[in-house]
User: Fold these one by one.
Assistant:
Number 1:
Amino acid sequence: MKKRINKSERKFQYAERLQQSGQKPKDLNVHARSQWQWTWTKMLLSLCILSASIPFLLYLFSDSIDLSRPSDIGLNHTINMYLTPEQGVRVGVWHTVPEHRWKEAQGKDLDWYEKALGDGSPIFIYLHGNGGNRSAPHRIGIANVLSAVGYHALVMDYRGFGDSTSEPTEAGLTTDVLYLYHWVKARSGNSPVCVWGHSLGSGVASTTAVKLLEQGKQFNGIILEGAFLNARMETNKLTEHPFTWFYWKFPYIQYFLFNPLKNKDLNLPTDENLQKLRTPLMILHAEDDHLVPFASAQEIYRIAKKAQNSDERVKLVRFDGSLGYLHNGLYKDPGLPNIIRSLCSH
């Protein structure tokens, strides 16, 4: 019959073994702590290596996507096209039609998509930020939201981004957008054409809007998401990678990776541009934006509201920091479709 050993007997046996080995309980505690410290050190080292390697792996993965085939990543009512804003410059654009036309869009060619622009649905030209290409998840997310609302979305990679050729410059970025605007207007009839600028794209959007104004034309509406006041101090900070929400605490990663405009001399003065514009404007900004502080949105709102002298034409929509949207996640908000509709209803 097995003998039952109580707690006091266990302690006695344990102490007896320690005495025979000459080892003290304190020594064992130190040894145990040392093992735990080494385990935690190895775990931290592994996490650091993982944190450093994932951006490279993601970059290699995004670079391997064939941007000429949007259907490969599930965009089944989207077509790829290339435009030539200037001689020797080719820019890639994805055109996503309204979701209710997705069945009709299956197997259609570029000519069908061009004619679809004249169906009366609002059209959004989406201008992305500084880094990556039009296949980034948050950019696809915005295109899908616009499509679900019933709008066309045209997402362009400026020159030097994605599979677009040439080198990016401030003049080149705005030239690309102006060309796309006129290309759309030539095919869209009386359909309203709006622009959505995210991050660095907000500066491109406002600068292009001013240039259009000089030509006697204007967008029907402007959305600025995660917008900064001007690009002079911001360009090297805005390196939007799909995992920026994780890597923003590691600025050395952001500085060296995925930044075609690093060290470029940009201005893109949104603060000055908004003083000239009278276009319906909506400013979208997350309170927890880690790249552009919410105070930037508040100042943009103040400038635009003063310039237009209207509470109706200028709106600031804040997204609570507890939602965790940061700089790239606003497309996840379930209320975004109605917010967009309210701009196009003006």
Note: The longest strand covers residues 78-83.
Number 2:
Amino acid sequence: MSNKLIGEMGLHTKISNIFAARNIITAKDALSMTEFELMELLDVGMKEIRLAITLISEATSPPCQSARSLLERKVENEHLSGHLPTHLKGLDETLCGGIPFGVLTELVGPPGIGKSQFCMKLALSASFPVAYGGLDGRVIYIDVESKFSSRRVIEMGLKSFPEVFHLKGMAQEMAGRILVLRPTSLANFTESIQELKDSILQNQVKLLVIDSMTALLSGENKPGAQRQPQLGWHISFLKSLAEFSRIPIVVTNQVRSQNRDETSQYSFQAKLKDGLQEHTKTYDSHLVAALGINWAHAVTIRLVLEAKSGQRIIKVSKSPMSPPLAFPFHITSAGISLLSDNGTELKGPGINTIHARGHSDMINFHGDCS
């Protein structure tokens, strides 16, 4: 709209010709100058300048839209959106269908809690036939810490979807649709993802998993502040890749110890007393998601996996379509399963704190349960 020609905006012929004579051709040319600069350059009065600026602004500004018209447009473009089912009923209902296309979804939690198990189940779902709730596509699985297990994926398929996986050759076909990459450095990873854009479209890729981004940056042996510019580039690239390809991108994140000064960074974690900030009690885990605040803002969905009082919990701690909810779960040979499809709504510090107590019961089904 900024490149729209002034001569096509319905201005009076006289003033339009004056703009053209001074080489002010587009709306951007005119609106980049102040009223006084235009008055001096065009040698016309302030009244004429303000009238011209008003007409140019109206011609280049997008029309106002109602919430109804935006909703109707969203419905018309529904074919560009969608969700990857997790096959966890309560979680899928909370996320309006599953892991959304076109955005970054993060899984964060302590080691051994089930992040890789979750990712492998998603990879299976994306490669599965549409008739059975899958996306019938290929998956690119960037396995930084060598936790991906084809044997475990096949085991999940046999236990979760026996009517399909017992068909001759189906297990091998599903496993063959998952391309596993194991970058040896951040530079190697960066080179790989830059080559993914064309590959995603050409090969019907329906899911990209990065397990884990934290491990890539940790391997650089640089202080956190020096790693931020690198992380900033990767954030921008992954967000644009998700929007461009219209597929879900799932990235796992690790946890780090929480500094005492960070306990009051959120409004619900501090209170004012006599005009001074007073620290509330420190929570038992002292864990927060790694990668920092810029990364936290970049992800659209954040799912936290934690262990509290001997029970595993998956929390929807960030989502534009639902309140923060928590679901208890366990890990079986079929993968992650919810113990209840009814989520418990979270409030206050429980939304962001991460507990790591009582998870000594982690199990290993031919692959790491991280």
Note: The first strand starts at residue 83 and ends at 84.
